[in-house]
Amino acid sequence: MSMPPESVPDLRSLAEQSNAWPFEEARKIVARLKKHPKDEVIFETGYGPSGLPHIGTFGEVARTTMVRHAFRVLTGDKIKTRLIAFSDDMDGLRKVPDNVPNKEMLSQHLGKPLTKVPDPFGTHPSFGEHNNARLRAFLDHFGFDYEFMSSTDCYKSGRFDAALLTVLERLDKVMAIMLPSLREERAATYSPFLPIDLRSGVVLQVPILAHDAKRGTITYEEPETQERFTVPVTGGRCKLQWKPDWAMRWVALGVDYEMAGKDLIDSVKLSGEICRALGGTAPEGFNYELFLDENGQKISKSKGNGLTIDEWLRYASPESLSLFMYREPKAAKRLYFDVIPRTVDEYQQHLDGYKRQDGRQQLSNPVWHIHSGAPPQVEMPVTFSMLLTLVSSSNAENAETLWGFIGRYRPGVTPQTHPKLNAQVEYAIHYFRDFVMPTKRFRQPSDAERAALTDLRDALTQLPAESTAEAIQDVVYEIGRREPFLDEKKKAKDGKPGVSLDWFNMLYQVLLGQEKGPRFGSFVAVYGLQNTVDMIDGALARSA
């Protein structure tokens, strides 16, 4: 990450006053350093590789990266920072995910560490390593500056050994924090340490019969044979339950900042208490709201509901996904296919507005945070919603058809001169094929609507071929100024009654078989007056 070219003192003073949420978070880390000075600040994100990476996983890295950059600006980039993407790949496989092949094979390895479970896809040594690779490939695709870290590697290499021995030495304190949070039945057999069974390789949930802090060992009973074993807590022979594990990791890695989902509020508090009991300082962070699928249910890695990373990128740019992550992180949001078109166009609106803003406003613009202070200059002559409507109106199955409309509307604009627009064209075709075309339903117009459409057709035929979008919109608006489309509450500039949205919605429902669309005058300007007249004729013929 390189620092933006603006004057650092000016930028820092604006950042100190900015109310953009990444700066609010970064100021908490600055305050933390005043109490606990250090030469390096560690940001962390966690990933549970029990299922394929989903967009929520990416969102945590994207948001943490935004806070990291804000911190660098606030400190003049004088303090080294690192972002660790940590995978809990030593967790036992609790259930078989819904969205993977070879489920029967996986079911035979329940309870084993994810890095000991065979890969159902057959591409990596283990299921954990497969999912880790998927995560890393996506983070690399986005150009994130991060260090990947594996729980299995940390446990087995000895990196966690010192912190694990501290947990063993202070076991009574850890138990005193954990037990009140557990149901009575679970509390009776609870142990922070989970030994890895030598016989089966399973992560055992068993009581600890004895522990020896000096020797660094625990003693447990193997459930099936009732044989007792004494094993070291170091070297990968044991792992911790996840809340003590989280706290131990904060201490071992010196984590200063980590955000978490709203569903983990209580877990963050408990792990923070354990972290302090181990002699550490709990990291700064905040609890973000969860993403919901089309039914309002929480997105789950194992269920595979909601959107996958690859699905979003089939229909829209990485930058649009980053905007979705930036906006209102503490508000629950539906993360489904229908949010994509609006998000794509909003990203471009923010990008277009950036160059017209002063320094203070720019620091509140999402694109400043998405692009680490250096948003690109990208001209997008046609919106994504417009492209979708063009595909729908022409039933275009290839990019060449769309570029024919675009080239006529904006001479000189080509795939070579506007590569980002070229990508948008491909996205729009994919989105139309998968979501618009299957649900396309043309509504029959009423008698009054047929009369209005006939008048609109006649009015459009009178316009010059080179008419602007504004001139066309004026005609469309004037034709709609009639019952049943009048809106007495809205007044036009000339004082006449306004036109309700019902008029414009009718145009899209009858002519294009979709509920809504872009500004109709702009659509006609791109699609062409004669093409639009032909489309109206077709709709009138269908309903004759």
Structure, described:
The protein is α/β, with parallel strands linked by helices and 544 residues long. The protein has 24 helices and 15 strands. The strands form six sheets. It has a four-stranded parallel beta sheet. Strand 5 (208-212) and strand 6 (217-221) form a beta hairpin. Helix 2 packs across helix 3 and helix 20 packs antiparallel against helix 21 (469-479). The longest helix is centred in the first third of the chain and has 20 residues, at 55-74. It is elongated, with a radius of gyration of 29 Å. The termini are far apart.
Quickly describe the structure.
By secondary structure, the chain is of the alpha/beta class.
Category from helices, strands and their pairing: alpha/beta
| Major sheet summary line | 4 strands, parallel
Mean pLDDT: 93
Strand order of the biggest β-sheet: 3-2-1-9
Please report the distance between the alpha carbons of the first and last residues: 62 Å
How many helices? The count is 24
Amount of beta strand: 5-15%
Helix content: 40-55%
- Taken from the alpha-carbon principal axes, the silhouette is elongated
Number-wise, the strands total 15
Give unreliable regions as ranges: none
Gyration radius, rounded: 29 Å
Task: Please give the structural blueprint.
Blueprint: H1 8-17, H2 21-35, E1 40-47, H3 55-74, E2 80-87, H4 103-107, H5 127-141, E3 147-150, H6 151-157, H7 161-169, H8 171-178, H9 184-187, E4 193-195, E5 208-212, E6 217-221, E7 228-232, E8 238-240, H10 242-253, E9 255-257, E10 260-261, H11 265-277, E11 287-288, E12 291-292, H12 309-315, H13 318-326, E13 333-334, H14 340-354, H15 359-363, H16 366-370, H17 384-394, H18 399-409, H19 419-436, H20 447-461, H21 469-479, E14 486-491, E15 497-499, H22 501-511, H23 520-527, H24 529-542
Helix pairs in contact: 2-3, 7-10, 8-11, 10-11, 13-14, 17-19, 17-23, 20-21, 20-24, 21-23
